[in-house]
Amino acid sequence: MRIGVVGGAGKIGKLRIETIQECPDTTLAAVLDLSEEAARSVAGGAPVFTDLKRFLETDMDAVVVSTPPHTHEDPCVSALKHGMHVL
Questions:
Q1: Whole-number Å distance between alpha carbons of 85 and 11
Q2: 60 phi and psi, to 5 degrees?
Q3: Residues 71-83 pLDDT 10s
Q4: Which of 3, 48, 56, 52 is closest to 25 using CA atoms?
Q5: The whole model's pTM is what?
Q6: CB 44 within 8 A of CB 19
Q7: Which residue ranges form the domains of the chain, and what is each CATH number?
Q8: SS3 73
Q9: Scanning 31, 40, 41, 59, which has the fewest C-beta atoms within 10 Å of its C-beta?
């Protein structure tokens, strides 16, 4: 399963990325964060984005949203509209 992480450079996002990378059945498809530099530091070679629209154009099956709760609506609804599972 190909999984993207929104807010990957934050504390919880980093934990989610580690879990995805450790699981043999998953691939980190992309990382979205406000800071491109911070996202690159945790992405392990996966594509990095600062723009939600471009992030969602990546070939992935699911998105993990790891941002503060008050910012969840836009990435969650947008990912669902793209036919992705959202965690």
A1: 22
A2: -150, 160
A3: 999 999 999 999 9
A4: 3
A5: 0.95
A6: no
A7: 2-86 (3.40.50.720)
A8: helix
A9: 59
